Amino acid sequence: MSRRLAVENLQRAFGGVQAVRGVSFALDAGEILALIGPNGAGKTTCFNLLNGQLQPDAGTVRLDGVDIVGLPPRRIWRLGVGRTFQITATFASMTVRENVQMVLLSVHRRLFGLWTLAASGFRDEAMALLERVGMGAQAERPCGVLAYGDLKRVELAMALAGDPKILLMDEPTAGMAPGERQELMALTSSLVRERGLAVLFTEHDMDVVFGHATRIIVLDRGQLIAEGTPDAVRADPRVQAVYLGGAA
Amino acid sequence: MSFYLVQFLSGLATAATLFLVSSGLTIVFGVTRIVNFAHGSFYMLGAYLGWTLVERWGTTPLGFWGAVAAASLAVGLLGALMEIGLLRRLYRSPELFQLLATFGVVLVVQDAASWIWGSEDLLGRRAPGLRGSVDILDQPFPLYDLVLIGLGPLVLGLLWLLFNRTRWGTLVRAATQDRDMASALGVDPARLFTGVLFLGSALAGLGGALQVPREAVNLHMDMAIVVEAFVVVVVGGMGSLTGAFVASLLIGQLQAFGILVFPQITLVLVFLFMAVVLVIRPYGLLGRAEDAPPTAASPGPPLVAAAGAARWAPALLLALLAAVPLVAGDYALIVLTEVVILALLAASLHLLIGLGGLVSFGHAAYFGLGAYGAALLVKHLAAPMPLALAAAPLVAGLGALATGWFCVRRSGLYFAMLTLAFAQIVWSVTFQWYGVTGGDNGILGVWPPDWAAGKAAYYWLTLALAGGALLLLRRAAFAPFGYALRAGRDSALRAESVGIDVRRHQWLSFALAGSAAGLAGGLYAFAKGSVFPTLMAVPVSVDALVMVLMGGIQTLSGPVVGAALFHLLETEAMSRTDWWRLVLGTIILVLVLAFPKGVAGFVRDLWTRGRDA
Q1: Which of B127, B245, B399, B495 would bridge B487 by S-S if both were Cys, CB 3.0 to 4.6 A apart?
Q2: Any CB–CB contact under 8 A between A77 and chain B?
Q3: CATH for A158
Q4: What does the mean pLDDT of chain A come to?
Q5: What's the number of domains chain B is made of?
Q6: Which residues 139-158 of A are in CB contact (within 8 Å) with B?
Q7: B300 assigned to some structural domain
Q8: What are phi and psi of B568, to 5 degrees?
Q9: Which residue in chain B has the smallest CA separation from A91?
């Protein structure tokens, strides 16, 4: 049986810099896989390769056995890969609710309508999603004025609106207070259980990583150096060397 | 052989002037991100001031060159003054608002120059000591042009030294890369911008003053040069001085030899060239992606469909307008008909600018295509008016579909310049294809049939068609299509990652805007009874842009308010005074300073503030 996501030998260079070299890993439904590594290890590049924003120089990315390399981001999204960004990207001139409605309109291929009102389409679905991520009370506020942590939540609701099989979350809790972080990750965990999602996320906060990931892969200078359960990774001397800086 | 050499050299001399002007433009744009329409006006002022000073002192070489330098410095000071008195107050406004302000300056300078120097062409004194010509392979070549040819590289060298070897230059480059960072490092952006405006304007003034011995000084120099300078800047790559230099050389030669090789299309050769360069190289010859300007329109507050009583405002307005013929005379109806047509033109452009963040400098092309589409059907096929009016949006829409396919593949000012290029191409085809379009004689006798011939009847017809189209455009803005367009403007990254094909939405909105402008054009043709190539020329595109910006781009009512305001002011000023440009320009400047969010934006802010209080 094919894995939900199977990445083989992914390569990508920028000029002379090999940002990602030979990365392979797999992800199954129900898993929360953390991708960690020091700054510049190639985490965001990996994400961009997975959702089609960047094209790999070599390697394959299979979603349920189908190679998705070379497809544009919007096609990969339609196949079930949702994403939140390291630096949040929302539609600043719309309200929180409209941001989610936009995604729902896209899901139902209603984007070219010239007559129906966008703000009344899939309103209840949008509100339900916003309630789920704790943004129901702020649904009518413009996205442009939200606090950063709230934007992260809106992004999560937008990603969920696409009913993804896989959720790529690039630093989902950056800019949040510690309490908020645990809350958001607990929410993510319950979503994974409810929906049978597969989550791949990056994170700098090790409490979040070790508290919520079911499995961890460690990237250093473009290469995977360790993979395993949180306990195994914590004990791995190579990981300690990377994080504690040349101690090995 | 020698003939070609001389032609080559005169191309180089043209290139030198082009480079002086466009280097100033690219420097100003690079640092301030202002699309400075007034740059051409500074060039023209340089020429006029140069003419006056050369008349006074230009009998000796020292006097002549002193006059040129003084004219350049004086224009530089005017540029600095414009920064301090006007632009500085607008840095927090939407970026396009500064463009509107500089357009106000263009109008004011036009009339000021006409008032001071008169409207006659002025022939300047030749440069003392350089009056003669040298023989190059037995062909005479003006000595003065040889000096100009040397001046281009000299200025490039001096600018290079200034930007790479002085502290001020380093700061300017830093501010070009990252404005916020530069001010975080303690650079006072205001002073830096004043200096940059001084330098850029002085270069334009220098270019103008140096033209005095070569060609007659006149009131049309400003628009001609500013369009060419923008072409040079875009072809060379924004922010690249070397690029501007190379592009000046290429375009100088294109003009020198183009007239020999393609005499029929000389008017568009430069624009064709720019279109080809941009299609092949997205950021110009030497431009880099990271120097490309960001999309011009910044996301505003959410669009809200008016609630409560205000929801009926459009219907009420329509009813009021429909009742006007009961009380008004023919003249008022003619003006109002024009207002309604222009409101549709402005609203169609607003669809691109306000919702799509796509600033078009060539929207007149589709207005003109609609007008000519209708007029040609009437003239060549004796089509009845309803058929001609139905064809107008179709022809324009198809034209927009074809040209838009290329335009939406570029963004920011590159998009704007591509739209301008296509508009110029359409214009010159119309202008030079005498057999079909009648050239600049236009097409006459495009009158409505009897049932619509009365001023009131045609007004009602216009109101029904244009009003209906306006309501459709408004509805589209609130429909998923308009939302998806805005989504692509707010964050193309996010839009693409939730399945929105941003480019396709932009393309279709370009076609939709084009066909709405086409309907406006068709209505205009029958309102006037004739069409001329000027309908699709640059001034009409600029007028449409000004209407949109005057009204404010962040509201849907903005373009309608702007069109009414602009056209009524223009008509009123024109009928009362010869100095209507001065009046209109001053009003624009006052409006810009008093309402930095546009008139409709201002009213809406008042409204919301009143409601929240």
Answers
A1: B495
A2: yes
A3: 3.40.50.300
A4: 92
A5: 2
A6: 142, 144, 158
A7: no
A8: -65, -45
A9: B490
